[in-house]
Amino acid sequence: MKLKLHFATLALTLISFSGFAQFSENEGAARQWIQLHASDLKIKPSDTFKLSFVTKSLAGETLRFQQVMNDVPVYHSEIVVNFNPSNELAFTSDSYDSTIENISTTPSISKEAALNISKESLKINGEYTVTENNLLVTKVNDQTKLVYKVVTNPKTGRASWAVLVDAQTGTVLSTYDEAMYHHKKEAVSKKPNPETTMSPLAFVSGTAMVYLSDPLSYAHVAYGATGYTDGSDANTTQLAAARTSVTLPEIDLTAGVYTLKSSYVQIQDFETPSYGLFTQSTNAFNFTRDNNAFEAANVFYHLDLSLRYINETLGITCRPALNGGVLRFDSAGLDGDDNSYYLPSTDQIAFGEGCVDDAEDADVIWHELGHGIHDWITNGNTSNYIGEGNGDYWAQSYSRSLGQWTSADAASQYMFSWDGHNTCWSGRTTNYSGTYPGSITGSAHTDGQIWATALMQIWDVLGRAKTDKAFLQGLILTNTASNQQTAAIAVRQAAINMNYACADIQVMTQKFTGKGYTLPALGLTMATIANQTVTADATNTYTLPSYATLANPITANCNAGLTQSPVIGTVLAPGTYTITMVATSGASTVTRTFQLTITPFLGVEDVVKNHFVLYPNPASNVLNIKGDFDTNESITIYNMLGQTIMTKGVTSNDESIDIASLAKGIYNVYFNNAKVAYKFIKE
């Protein structure tokens, strides 16, 4: 919880709410739901909630209400309310603690005093930075306390210490490490080199030699095979051959100096050992693993690749809340320990060097980024119950997409294939036999394998893009108290909100249930259907097709009846018509209507256009495209000045594009392969 927003108060009848910075037309409906369920949630009449964060995404709009006490945040106590793209309330979750008592929120000691108390208690030798010092209300040993949370990051990088200081007495109540590690293991540090500095530069493209995943997966061998051991960073013929030349879409160039920085990622040297920033006079970052620059380029490539995939390919906005939205990383940190972590107080990632360098294994890189994604997409409200499983899934989703192993290979399920499963440590898997909740051990790293395995079982059926979208959109609906079962419900609901095919929802239900999660029974639902605009054919008529795919009624068995009026095959002249879709399942009925506008025939291009459906139009947040697309199809969105706004590959016959960030106005969508264009209005 980064708490970077300013509060303002507005009282309501039963529960006090307020809005600030964030705005949503659904806020009133969300507040009403909370009011109606105050008794179920055990909310006290004196409790106050403030709208702290609004996320508009492919799965609708999600509002996060932060509990406050006299404008002081109650730590990790919030209510989350999600509305689907039709603005219908679809999902809620909460981390509200009804046992929080009303206390005085006027501190007796100052912020500076709390900082000094924290420094004295930690007794850190050497350099450090204080990244957080906030006043909070929280529970400590079952007592409600007003505290200062002070977070200190030592330059060595061995921890990120959070100290809770009693704001009334100055007593240190709790000290804990809040960094998010990929595993728990110590190692010996390596010798540092002098540090250099970096300044913001201009972007050009570059190249690098990297491990696409790791050298073992590339060569289909096990750790210990000839040439395939760490050997204290020794370069071997085999390990050099496992590298692949890749393009870096963006790197910085100023005054002839190239630096590993892009719109998404930036190298930093914030922990020991200090090797500098590996700036150079060429845009080719081609190194072997015996050079520390190799790890830097490897991490940069993978972090940039992952964030581009999320934001540009999947169309989901997900970036750090700090550092201007740019992720900072240190490819050699943690004082050389055999571990890596994400630092939530600074939105940074650091990688250790003990045993196999973590920065050489894409699984470690993508796993740690998974912690960051979880943090940013929930506005800091991450859950320890699902965090490690999230990271494992995100890493495995990428590495399996490379197709380096067959499903028959045990290594296809390995997590940390190069860094683990060897003499360094045992690694983890995504074919974990445990089920929820019976196999829960209380160890986040062990238990996360249940969650990651369930997601990968869905991935094996639905594929990477669909599963990744549902996973990321589902995380938006979670909070600090969300366990694996809550997360499973959230991921399935996100898929329903995005109007995934009923068969896809059925797969999710079956796989989640198979891993022990109990999901709510699915009643009959049908998404709102956006208005459609098509063009008549050369005879200046339009033959009505089936709109069953757009209607997509969802039931547990995908056996809903569906009727359409006017019926399929009806020949219509240009004009505007009301299309009615009626879904039935047992005694349940859902009716949806939409307007179909048929424009007159204008020429050959419009016949081509009839193969595509683009809706809604006008659109506010999401633009949907359906059709029979060529495998090489892509679209480019231009503004009315002819400037390119966005380019995106079309990977399926059912695409959703996040346009929430576009300014209001008229845009052209050009299908680059079919060579036709549509206009749409951004509201």
UniProtKB/TrEMBL annotation:
NCBIfam families under this entry? Por_Secre_tail
| Keyword Signal attributed | yes
N-terminal signal peptide: 1-23
**MF annotations from Gene Ontology:** metal ion binding; metallopeptidase activity
Domain Secretion system C-terminal sorting span(s) in chain numbering? 614-676
Q: Which SUPFAM superfamilies match?
A: Metalloproteases ('zincins'), catalytic domain
Tell me which stretches of the chain form a coiled coil: none
Residues covered by the FTP domain: 62-89
The name under which this protein is listed is: Uncharacterized protein
UniProt-listed GO biological process terms: proteolysis
Pfam (any one):
FTP
- Which controlled-vocabulary keywords does the entry list? Hydrolase, Metal-binding, Metalloprotease, Protease, Signal, Zinc
The organism's superkingdom is given as: Bacteria
InterPro entries for this protein:
FTP_domain, Secre_tail, Zinc_Metalloprotease_M4
